[in-house]
Every structure is written in structure tokens, then in C-alpha cells.
Fold each of these.
Amino acid sequence: MPVKILIPTPLRRFVNGEKSVEVEASTVEGALLALGQRSADLRKQIFDDSGKLRNFVNVFLGDRNARELAATLAEVPVRAGDVIVLVPAIAGGVADVKLSRSEILRYSRHLIIPEVTIEGQKKLKAAKILCVGAGGLGSPLTLYLAAAGVGRIGVVDFDTVDLTNIQRQILYSTADVGRPKVEAARERLEALNPDIEIVTHSVHLASWNVLDLFREYDVIADGTDNFPTRYLINDACVLLGKPNVYASIFRFEGQVSVFDAQHGPCYRCLFPEPPPPGLVPSCAEGGVLGVLPGILGTLQALEVLKVILGVGDPLYGRFVTFDALDFKFRELNFAKKTDCAICGANPTITAPIDYEAFCQVRGAESESDVGQAQLISVEDFQQRRAAGEAFHLLDVREPHERKIASIPDSIPAPFDELPARLHEFDSADQLVVYCHKNGRSLDAWRLLRKAGFGRAYVLSGGVDAWAERIDRNLPRY
Ligand SMILES: [Zn+2]
């Protein structure tokens, strides 16, 4: 009976550029054999010499993985009008890639692994991987991908290297402080492996540029640290049909997964909505143990290599958490949501959206939000207080942060405790709140205003601005 086989882009050149081919068959295997008869070259792409379907080619019958429907594809029947989808693990012109003598020596420990061999190494060389974020996760990720011989590594980052980065971002040296991250990263990665290409993108990833950027790559690795970018990456990957290798870190905990709507659920299937603003602090606000991004970024590199090589079981539909203090890995299984807003049956998102609005970005991340708060500069505050004006200065940071640096005559009032301690303050008084920069203080200001503290202000720039402009003896962190 007639069935349709959808041909992925890299294989279309074997069928005169056709997007789909109709064949007569009664089983999935029969359909693939019939496809192979159309072109000997195509047959070599999807079957090995012994006639076995290559394991980096996935076969879907409708939306079901055909390999999961029966022990062999010869046992999976097809009906007239069925659609078979071929999904190679990676799109790339592997066949044309050659390894030089020095590359063969460089990668010899790969070549002797049966799961890699020279064919796998060629796949790595042909692969194009985009790492979004060249920070704690992006450091081990790009270093290992470069060392492993991934042919083209794109790095997206807009930041410059800061001294507070060096504690965990091992791509950089102390001498790199002040340099653009992508520049320092390119130099380091090229020194590590001159046989590969490093492409730098010094841009803010946004809804208007994400699709054009991602289109050039086979796999996207999400090493970012904020929700708007995570949702942006997820949505762009789903729209373009690319795998999204994900990791995230916070203090002593990490998460890793592989989202690929063609193989399973996406990030939105697991987290349809971002957490409310302020609930999850960023690394800059909450801190992170230096080695933790090393562990998670390395696991991310592992999953990228598996996806490229088409070996093992990538973390599709599996979400792994790591608790460094307990030394516990936990694996959680999750399924595709049929009503997922982007990868579900009736998606409501069909193009990248405005993620800052979706995630209700607040605090230091949104300038317009800062504009709404009543701000007082560190200079103004110091002068007015010195002139005898009465202020209660509330430090909404954690006690251990106060030990690093604090402003004289401030009252410790950690943000989490504030709601229960409002009765300690008089709403008729002038209150000034500060934190490290301006994340928690804005949330605290909002809380105070709601509770009727009409004379509450935010110390603009927090203790960091104080240390920079008022008391230079105070350490900055
Ligand atoms: Zn989804």
C-alpha cells in the first residue's frame, strides 16, 4: 500500500531534492528498503553494510518512534496513507569530511572506541554546535567540545570577563579581566584545538535574531542564567526542530536534560510557566559553588557528543538533578504535553515572543521596572543622612553577605524575613532599602509600598555602588 516517507534535508540530495517520497510497502522496513531502491547512495546513508538500519537514523511512524512499536521494523505494519519520518541524529555532510594525519593522531583515543571510530570522529568534525552563554557552564562545555574535535563551535555572549567570574569560568585567566568574553574564549579554544572553527556572536539573543542564528547550527546548548533566554532558546529550537541540550546551576544544585520536540518533550512541557519573579535568584544574587558548573557543563558536553554521534540514550524526556551536598543524582521522567503551547498538537506559539514580558522580568534585569521605584542615589543618601535627616536603612541581604561588606548603621532585614517583620517599622518613617545591587531591594520596596510604607526608597546600586563611590575601602563582590 502507498505510504509517504518524509526526507530530512541532508538526505534530499539523494532523491532529487524531494521533500517526501511515496513508496509501496506493508511494513516500515519494507518502506525503507523500497526507499533504498530509489538510490544506492541513500541506501548507504540509512543502512550499514550488513543491511541493518544505522542507529543514528530515527524512524517515526506518524509521531511514534517506530523502533518502540515492535522488536524489529519488519514487524511494524503500515497502512495506506501512513507517513514515515526519517530523523537523522544530526544534519550534516559527514560523507565529505576527511581527517588529516595529525587529526587522526590527536583523536586516536576516540578512534579506538567502537562507538566512535573514524566515522564518529568525522561526524564530530562535521558538527556545528552553538553554545549560548560563555560562563560557568559554557566554559567546560566549549573546552571539551573543542578538545573532542567538534568542527564548528559558535559562542554567544555579550559580556566582558569580570574578576568575580574567574572562580568558576575556567575558560578565562585573570589576565582576561575586562576583555569581551567571546574574544578571550576564541583565543583559548583556538589554542586548544587549531583544527576547528570558533565562531563568535557578540550579541544579545533576542526574538528577532534567534532563528537566523540557530538555523546555522545542528545542536544548541543552553548555558544561560535567566528565564527569558531559556524560553527563547526552547521555542526557537522547537520551531527549527533542533535539539536543546540544557543545564542549569544554583548554589549546590544542578539540572541537566535534552529537550528535542522531535524525540520527546520540550522545556515548556516541563515548565509551561516561568516561576514568579524573585522566587529563583540568579547566580549573581544567590551564588554558586565554583566546581558545580564544571560538573554540569561537562555532563552537557557529554550529551552534546552523544546526540552528534547518535550513541547511547540522550536525556530525552529525562530530567536529571544533582545535589552536590548530598551527592545525589535523581532522574525524573517527564512526557510530552499534548497541550504544550509550542510543541503540542495545537501550538499557540508559532514564532518567538516577547520573553521579558512573558517572564515578568523584574529587579536588576529590567530598567523600566527600576524606573517605577523611588530611587535615592548613594551620594544623596549620604549627604542627607549626614545633614541629620532621619532614615532607617534596611539591609535586605543575607547575614553572610553582610559579613563581606555593609553600610554603617543599617538594620539587617533579610528579604525572606521582611514580610514577618514589617511590624518592627513605622510606616510614617523614611525607610531606605538596599541589597547587593538592585534585585532584592526592588522587591522589598514593592512589598513595603504595598504594606503602606509610603516613604520607602531604594538605595540605587546597593552596597556595590556604596563601595564604588562612597567608601572605597569596602570590598566589592
Ligand atoms: Zn513542549
Amino acid sequence: MAAQPELEHPKKAFGWAARDTSGLLSPFNFSRRETGEKDVAFKVLFCGICHSDLHMVKNEWGNTIYPIVPGHEVAGIVTEVGSKVQKFKVGDKVGVGCLVDSCRKCQSCADDLENYCPSLTLTYGSKHPDGTITHGGYSDSMVADESFVISIPDNLPLDVAAPLLCAGITVYSPLKYYGLDKPGLKIGVVGLGGLGHLAVKFAKALGATVTVISTSPNKKTEAIEHLGADSFLISRDQEQLQAATGTLDGIIDTVSAIHPLLPLISLLKSHGKLVLVGAPEKPLELPVFPLILGRKLLGGSMIGGLKETQEMIDFAAKHGIKPDIEVIPIDYVNTALERVLKADVKYRFVIDIGNTLKASS
Ligand SMILES: [Zn+2]
Ligand SMILES: [Zn+2]
């Protein structure tokens, strides 16, 4: 899509943006709206790098508006609140995840499922109802309606809180919605990246016995000794799969590459649920017989509503769930995105915006 002129806003902001499909980011001056009466403005201190940032900066989903300032795992400190803001005050620790607005009229919005609102406004690269293009957290400041701002508990550091706002809620919401949150259940997690490693931690904290399912045998030690999984299955090892047939109550599948579903469906008990949260670019082959034979369910899930995101953050704080992060300076961001592409990160990059983003850089 062609570059669009920036609508003039009164407040100067500074960040890093991609300007074309090369996806390379560089310093970028822009502007943000004045803090409205229900708005919370905050200084961004940390922003996580999500795999979708990579797709968006390169226009791989075909809907990118350049220049684009990515970042939807944004955490910082409140600097200003509007006159009608009730939940926040200056100095509070806050965050913004994948969305900054929604229609507030549809059934999804009424049900606290703003993430499924057909007119939701994404945190970056999305057209806001006021006509402006939203810019994300690879920048010095954010402004959002308080209904879309998450309160970060004191015992949760902002750098580890940031990735929870997308990666965390993406795996927490399906565990809750699909009833995979009961103690004693046997839960599988497919893929051990940013999403998968958090799925292991949340499922464990919810009382599940967790099996990591991966193509890489060398992740076994990491999964069990470091992340606390109970067992490990190599997804291409027929003997191991055979032995584990019909043992899992649910599976959170975080893989976004094309992969076979049959082995996963076979691992489920009768009435087991396979939930996809990764988004492969092409359709997957769906074997129907094994679903029918065990009354099994295949489902999907996308991030979560604001109420549930707050619940997830509070749960993470209470149970000491923290993503494993690699904190980087902003001028490392292009290298970091390349490494995300190669899955060369344990398990999430978080940009230290507060200390490294300088208007002169
Ligand atoms: Zn994300
Ligand atoms: Zn709505």
C-alpha cells in the first residue's frame, strides 16, 4: 500500500518505523493525539518484538500502511491522564497489547471480547475511527483510551510484563475458554517459541501435567529442566507418538509453519481439544475420521479481551510467571527481527526503549 501523509497531531513523538517492504526500521518522527478526557498517556519503557511485527513491516499480510511503527507489547509509566479517567493516575505502571479501540456496540464488545470485534482498532498500522493511523510501541510514548490500558502489578517488572500483553494472552485465553485450565489435566504444547514457552508456564501454573511436542530433540532438556514441562515428545518419532496416543486432554498448537495435524489429533483422548493459535499461511490438511471417532474438537483462538488480559497479567504476577526475554537496545532491532525469522531467540526480544531510544539516534 502507498505511503499516506501523516495527519497532524499536536504531540511530538519519536520511534522507529519501516517505510517499505524491505521491512528495515529506522528513526522516525511522528505525532500522537492530545490526551483526551478518557485517555491515558504513558512513556514507553519496554516493548516486546512479536512475530507478527515481522510480517507487518514486510507487508506479508498485504494490509500494511507505511510508514509503520510496530510494537504491541508495550509497557511503561503513566505521564498524563484525562479528566474522566478513573482507573489510572500519573506514575502508574501500565501496558497496551494488540488493540487500542473497538466499536463498543457489538455483541463481542458487550461480552468483553473486544478482540473479536469486527471493527477493532489495532495498536499499530490500523486506521483509528478519527481517521489517523495508529503507531505502536517501538516509540517513546503511547496514548490510549483507559478501557484499553492494562494495569501492571507492582511485583511484575515492566520488561517481562511486555511480552505477556500479546504472547501471554494468546496462550492464556484458549486454556481458559476451552476448559483446559482445570488442575490435573494433561496438556500438550506444540512449538517452543515465544508463545509455546509461555503456554508451558501458564498450563503448569493452572495445575496441568504438561507435555512439550517439538520437532527438535535438542529442546528436551530446555523444556523439562528449564521451563518445567513434565515430558517431551518428538513429533516425528512414530514410536513415541504411538506410546502417547490418547493421553492428552488438550493441546495448544503454537506452530505457524505448515505441519500435520493427524499426529496431534491422535494424541488427544476422546473429547480432547486441539487449539490452534499459530497462523500458517496456507491451509492445513484436516483428517476428519480421527476427530469423529473420539468426538474431538479443533478450535482456534486470537489474543483476548481487555478484561481477560488484565486477569492474565494479575495471574502471572500472582504465580510468578515471567517470559524468558533478551533485552536489546533499539538500534539492534533490525538484527533482532532477522533472528526472530530464524527462531533464534529465547524466547522473546524486548526493546529497552526507555534507555536506548533517543530522539537524536
Ligand atoms: Zn503479537
Ligand atoms: Zn465491537
Amino acid sequence: MPPNAVITGWGMYAPQRILTNQDLARMVDTSDEWIVTRTGIRERRIAADDETTTTLSVYAARDALAVAGLDPTELDLVIVGTCSPDYPLPATGVLVARDLGATRAAGFDLQAACSGFLFALATGSSFIRSGMYRNVLVLGVEVLSRFLDWHDRGTCVLFGDGAGAVILSASDQPGGLLGLELFSDGTGAEGIIVPAGGSACPASPQTSAEGGHFIHMSGADVYRYATRQLAESTLAALRSAGLGVDDIDQFVYHQANLRIIKSVGKQLQIPDEKVFVNIEKYGNTSAASVPMALVEAVASGRIKQGDRLLMAAFGAGYTAGAAVVEWTADPLQAFRAPGAQTRLGKPRSAGAATLGETAADEEAALPEVAAAG
Ligand SMILES: CC(C)(COP(=O)(O)OP(=O)(O)OC[C@H]1O[C@@H](n2cnc3c(N)ncnc32)[C@H](O)[C@@H]1OP(=O)(O)O)[C@@H](O)C(=O)NCCC(=O)NCCS
């Protein structure tokens, strides 16, 4: 029998700086009312100038390692699901392994946009089930604030920065990944795209002047596709697990838009109390959104040992991923683990402040449009 890949550790990190809808209304032509009614988002986190995808990853990963009771040297593999890496090369996964002291681990990045964590979870599970590795760190991490046009109200109000991590470990006990669906459809490539900076359109002064390195999105098209595809991917993952909607204890969806989550819940007749939502605090953190929601769902007591979860995400490509997971760990382990308390389920720590309350020098560090606007 191949080993099962069960989640033994989990952690998250949200940058301290909070950007509220009111702050955005001072930067672009928008309002708190528009953003809340169209998306459910009230605020999002923005990485500090000295924070990167690697540094966010390391915070989340350290907490996940502490919960699992693992030393970094016991990791065999580090997979970072991200579309906002520190650099086009080297891979963020390599830098994360270095900074963690995961000296035995191989590291790489996996790009499936907002579905990155689901694709990384599937990949990590496969390495464990094949017998090749015993402990895999799977991350979903983004610093998308560096890829946003802060003059474009159609995108800049939606996204935020953050990191989520799980440790997958080989186990002879039942549990872990029960069902999986990965999906991609490149006909939707233009729906969400950073058009420049790759081989198709290399970086140049012109691409920079034209905003080619920022996220461009056709919101209405993405919305339509996402509502349909998330429901279909959910059902496909359930079929692969031999389960139905009623067999799932908690649904942890990609937090892109509250209306999308509600629409999927309605299509599949999922009771509201089984759908975890934290979009109001973080916005769309892309690949980080599902693992951050998972960590907060566990910390809030909504996930218990033996529960079956469905995690699903949708993103640029288009891509979609859905996984049915049996949760085997003791949720309280997170609160016993050293160091984990600071960032786990209590992301709004004493040190956090809204933008309105930050010191002038911090405000100066905001994206330029804040000053312009
Ligand atoms: C972007 C999104 C929130 C827009 O909501 P919507 O209900 O489609 O928007 P509406 O059709 O009601 O309104 C569009 C209008 O609002 C305007 N608008 C866009 N952003 C705005 C903002 N931040 N504030 C105020 N008005 C805004 C548009 O310019 C447009 O105006 P127009 O009709 O004069 O051209 C929605 O389409 C969405 O969430 N799409 C999916 C995006 C997503 O999830 N992307 C990531 C996937 S991983």
C-alpha cells in the first residue's frame, strides 16, 4: 500500500500593513460601499518594502514546521505555489529552503496563478504517495501588490499579500487527500494576464511605460467563468473521492469574491455554515488564499479531527483545482506549538494598524499613487 499524504503542520503569515477600502477611495475613484457590495472585501494586507515572497513564505513555513514538530532538515521538498516570485529566476522555493535551513530539501516554484496551492498540494501528495519523499512543505504565497497598477480601480481593490503553508507527511494511517481535480483551459489566457516581462513580450522601457508588467483583467469574463468552473471542479473532486456534497464538513474556497463563493454555494446547495469566508480581511491573495483560509478555519474551531474538507480555487489561465482532504491532525496542536500563536488565527496582532493610523514615514512607503492622490 502506498503511504497516505496527511497534513501534519499548518501556518500562515499576513503582513502588518493594512490597506482599507477607505484608503483606496483616497487613491482611485472607488468607494467602500462599491467594493464591499461587489466583492465582500473590506481591507487587505500589503507587504512592507523589505518583505518579499520568500520572507512571507519563511514566516508561514516556520509556523507550519513548529505545528508538525519537524526540524527544517527533515524536509525533503519545498514547493512554492506563486505567481509573484521574488525573481523570474532563481526559484523562490530554493530561497525559502535556504532561509529555513532546509539543507536536504529540493525546492521549486509552481505557477498556476490563484490555483497554485491546489496544484502544489497535488504535486506534494504525489511525491509522498509514490514513496519518494516523506515530508513536503507546500506553500501558497503572493506579494501581488508589486504587480498591481495602483491607478486601475478594476484590479487594485481586489488583491492583497499573504502566505499560507502546510506540511504533508507520509502516514500509514487513513486520511489526507481523498479526491482531486486539476483543470486548465488556455482559451481564457487573456482573462487575467501580466502581458509583458516574459518571452512573448520581453521587458523594455516601452512595456514599462505601457503598464505591461501589471495585472490586466477582464473582470466580468473572469466572474462568469469562475462561478461555473468552481462548481464543476468541486463536483469533479467529490466524484473522484466517491463522495457527495453532504459528506463534506467544511468548504474552503479561494477568496476572490464573496459573490462568487455565494453563487457556488447556492448552485451546490451548501449550507452557509459549511463555507469558510475570510475575504473581508485579506482580499484576493491568489495562491495564498486557500491555505490562509484553511489555517484560520482550523484556528477558529470549524475543522475537527476526522472532518472532510473540500478546498478549491480558480485563477488565471484559466486554471482550477479542487481537493477533498480528510483532516487527521489535532487542531489544538497549533496553539501548543512554540511561536505559532503570533500569526495563527490572530492575524490582527497588537502591532497591526490601519493605514490611517500609521506613521507618516510608513505612508510615504505606499505605492506612489497614494501620494499622487
Ligand atoms: C471585478 C468585479 C468585482 C466587478 O464587479 P461587477 O459586478 O462585474 O461590476 P459591475 O458590472 O457592477 O460594474 C462595472 C462598473 O464598475 C466600474 N468599476 C470597476 N471597478 C470599480 C471600483 N473599484 N470602484 C468603482 N467602480 C468600479 C467599472 O468601470 C464599470 O463601470 P462602467 O459600467 O461605467 O464601465 C467582478 O467582475 C469580479 O469580481 N470579477 C472576477 C475577478 C476575479 O475574481 N479575479 C481574480 C480571479 S482569481
Amino acid sequence: MESESLFNEEVEPPGSLTGIIGPEHQTPNSFRPYKKPSHTSLYLAKPDRGVFPFKDSPRAKAFRKRFFPDISRIEWYDWHWQFRNRIRDVDILSQMIELSENEHNALVYHSGKIPLSITPYYASLLTGNDCSRPLRRTVVPVVDECFRMENEEDDPLGEEHDSPVPGIVHRYPDRVLFLVTGLCSTYCRYCTRSRMVGRDGEQGFSSDQWEQALEYISDRPEIRDVLLSGGDPLTLSDEQLEWLLFRLRKIPHVELLRIGTKAPVVMPQRITPALTHMLKRYHPLWMSIHVTHPDELTPEMSQACMRLADAGIPLGSQTVLLTGINDDVETMKQLMQGLLRIRVKPYYLYQCDPIPGSSHFRTSVSKGLEIIQGLRGYTTGYAVPTYVIDAPGGGGKIPLLPEYLVGRDGDDLVLRNYEGQIYRYPDRETPTNSDVH
Ligand code: SF4
């Protein structure tokens, strides 16, 4: 039977896209936004500039008054302002936090692929002068980034190998990863895609590339699930994102759309009423949110997630296990429980990928297993993510579990529960007459 499109609402098609893909204010002359649909329902939501009703947190207010005294609350809660005013410069950052010698040298002499970029909102979370603070370590470079260890690779997951056309990674049978931009508002120092985000990736995506990727998906009926990632797809304008979602929804065999993003964490202002209003027209649409530490679970992030959840978007989290940042049971438990409170299901806990200069972030696998063991049984099952290694060389995600299966004793499976106690389960394949009482 021919599959029917799940996209059953008539929406006027977006117009054409031309040129390089990026936020309007980054490449003002190279992107022509499409003509808005003539019916108004899509745009009835409040405009996404300035008026998004976030509750002003005392932390944000104090930070704003200190470092951006001329900026109004309305500007602060406008994601365009946050994006335009990303901190990309050692001089500005050093006014906000006292840089260690290590951080200062890394910033001054840095020539690596991932540039410095931190939204003012996220900078407001980097409190104090302690350079070992978890969030600070994830976004402020140190000189360790310059040292490439044996077995570290530019493309550790072999994505280029599984890329039939630019921007598409087709590794698993029924789904593709669609890399739509190389731009992020805030760069993580441990980014798996350091080869393509930041310096090399911010200008590297074009509408021609998107068209090629869409054609690839359209030509393959086996693709039922498309994950938009990058870079961060939520650095695109609403118009650009909708253009993509619209085109994908028109492909009858694409059942599921997903977006991977860190925006609710580093720039929650991005989750505007206009955005959620637009997104909910493209269901089933899921979102994976990259989150690292409980300090990120602010009232602003909570509001952003609630807004997405209220738009009917199922939310999952992705967390990279990072040494000295989140590699202990208590921190991870707080993070996972906090995510459930804001309606985000912990989805994946990743072993850190061996990109160049990542050795100071990577933990042993036994540490990850210890954390899973410390969660399972001790907290809500929904709060336990799947711990995976994305196999170097392109083997895909391989789940890892502590040893709960001790072995077999005759027809019995011998199992260990979360407290270490041993139990047996009768595991005969077919019951015999003598088993029937
Ligand atoms: S948000 Fe994602 S793509 Fe962007 S730098 Fe962080 S890990 Fe990389």
C-alpha cells in the first residue's frame, strides 16, 4: 500500500531559498526569506522579537545590569539580540570572568577549529572565578585542546564515509541525519563535529546543498525518520526552518521529524511563541536537547522546555559524559531528575567521542557504567538514560549496561539486582508436561 503523507494540513508553500544558509543578521544579503503565507494563522503568534514573556530571574537581571547596563529586559529576552551579542572575544570575556593563565593562553594563541562563542545568557551562568566550574569548562577553551592524542580523529564517527551527498549521513537503514548548518550560538569545547562547525562550518551551507539532501531523501522510500542537526538548527530563522520542515513533510515516506538542538540550554530566548506555533504544524516532531549539567536547569530553560512540551513536542535529552563536569552519580542524578521535572525524558548518555584535543574531557567507560548502576533502581526508571558509545569508525551507537546477567545455572538465569543481590529466573524455552501443575 502506498504510504500517505502525515502532513494533512494545507499550508501554502514557502517561496524559494537562495544563497548561503544562516541567520538573517549574519548574512543579511545572501538569504531571501520566503514570502509569508497569505493566510495569517501561522503568524498570529506574538512577533518573536522582544516580547517573549520570560520571567526575569534575579541572576539574569544582576548580570545584565552589571555587564550590559544599557540593555533593556526586552532586548535581553530577544534571541536575535542574544545571538548578535555572542561573546567571541577574549577581552570581553575577561571582563566577565577572571581568566586563568591556561584559559587566557588558549584564547590568545588559539588556532583550533572551534571558536569561542558564548551567548550573554549562558555567560550569566559562568559565575565566580573558579576555572574548574563545570559549565565554564564546557565553553571556555584551555590549552589542552591543542594536544592531539593517538586515536583522536577529526571525524571519529566516520560520518564523512556514510555521507552520500553533502549534509546527509545515512548510516542506519530507515533514517538519516540531515546536517543543516555549521553554526551554533555557543560552542562546546568537546563537540563531536568540530570538523564542520565553527570556523569551517559557519558559512559552509547553501540552499543548493539543502536541495540535494532533500532530493536524496525524497528518492529513498526506506527513509522514514529525518533528524535535523548540525550545528544547531535553531540558529536558523523561523522562515528557514519552516522551509525545511515543509519540504520534508511533503515527502510521503518521511513519518518522523526530529531536531537536535542546544538552544533551550544556551539561548532559551529562541523558544518563542512564533517558533512553537510554527513547529506544531509539522507533527510528529520530536526534539533532542543537548544538556550537560544541573546548573543549566534554570527557570529560563524550564520555561523554554515547558513551551515546547505544551506545543506537543516530545522532548528527550542527550548528555556527553565529561570528566570533572558530570562524571559522578549525584550530579547525573540531579540532572536526570531535573530534566524529568521540566518534561524532558533522559534519552542518551554518550561516552565522549575522541575528537582532537578531547583527552581532558574523556572518562573511562567504567565510570559511565558506575553512573548507570548508581541510577538504575535508585531513581525513577524514566530518569535513566541509555549509555552508549558511538563506535569510532562508523559502527553506530552501541549500548552499554552494567552486568546484571550473572550467567546460567541449568535452566535458570542467574541475575543480579540493583543492590547486588542474586536472583534466579526460570528460563526454559518450552515448558514440558512435568512443569504443568
Ligand atoms: S551545540 Fe552541538 S553542534 Fe554545537 S558545538 Fe555544541 S555539541 Fe557541537
